[in-house]
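Journal club side-thread
Mid-discussion, someone asked how the predicted structure for our own chain would compare to the paper's figures. Pasting it here so we can look after the session.
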Amino acid sequence: MYALTWQGHEDVRVEEVPDPTLVAPTDAIVRVTSTAVCGSDLHLYSVLGAFIDPGDVLGHEPMGIVEEVGSEVTGLRPGDRVVVPFNISCGTCWMCTRGLQSQCETTQTLSQGTGAALLGYTKLYGQVAGGQAEYLRVPQAQYGPVVVPDDDEPDERYLYLSDVVPTAWQAVEYAGIPADGSVLVLGLGPIGQMAARIARHRGASRVIAADRVPERLEMARRHGIETLDLRDVDDVAGAVRDLTSGRGPDAVIDAVGMEAHGAPVAGVIQRGAALLPDVLARPAIEKAGIDRLAALRTAISSVRRGGTVSVSGVYGGAVDPLPMMEMFDKQLTVRMGQANVRRWIDDVLPLVSDPADPLGVLDLRTHRMSLHDAPRAYEMFQKKQDGCVKVVLDPSLAPGDGD
């Protein structure tokens, strides 16, 4: 089969690799019909290469058709249309039964001291082959895959259940926005777009979202979100306080993470670490402050006293300096973590299935491209070219086809 493989710093290639097979009785094989490119994929593309090997298959936002199931997989059968959550969880361990599927004790990567294994996401999380491929082996298939209607609706109606919608839902849940409260969303990539829409859907009276990319700002405005163009603002926290009675919003959602704009020194360190040999880069990333913290610092500065900062953007540095005095003085609550995808499926599946499309899932993808064009998709997404907000790769398309 063909799959997108990591080969080096900002070097991904579509190659022929062996077809996946059932390894455990709880596995399933899925023929991929759509697989999205995530902002977290860009971290592997340009920053976290020390934890990935040449030839590793990328991607953690897939859906498709079940081809084969292991002997212990009940509830799935060949022909089912499924979305595959990015975290691999068993559903029965102590963590899973408490809604912490991202910490699943069955698939925890104990050798790295990290949580549940993830599809297509480095040695830190199990080095499991990802879903930017024609076929995917799904571990823990007795629990993970979400069966969706086999109807005429496009994949994009359901695809984002793999990551974007549950991640954004958790970000809003963790933000704890009061009834008729206010929230600032930093970053209008796919997670930020969806978090802003979900916050509005769940009753926030004021949803402000900040970004610097015109197409992202325009997409948010289409969904009734108040926007702040960072190209026109020197003091984000001051501007947001002016919009919120001088206090700041009740909550801020950081949907940016480790590669924020506005941190040039950290950016140089980050790029330097990415270019080191693996034996040097790994300890540098694991034990140094390599993150660009501009977005997180802006969140802390912007939120009102007694408010909440919800972090869905991914950070990787172990000793990043944080303004602890300010955080303590403002009596902030900070919540963060990988999304517990299956925890939120019962909440979000009815919304994405609703013909009225209350979350606007059919207005998120800007590009549908052939899997064979994935290297171009990664570059375009990273550089924010051609109005790119969300790319979906289609293994059935010929190179150069798509929209």
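Post-session note: The first helix runs from residue 39 to 46.
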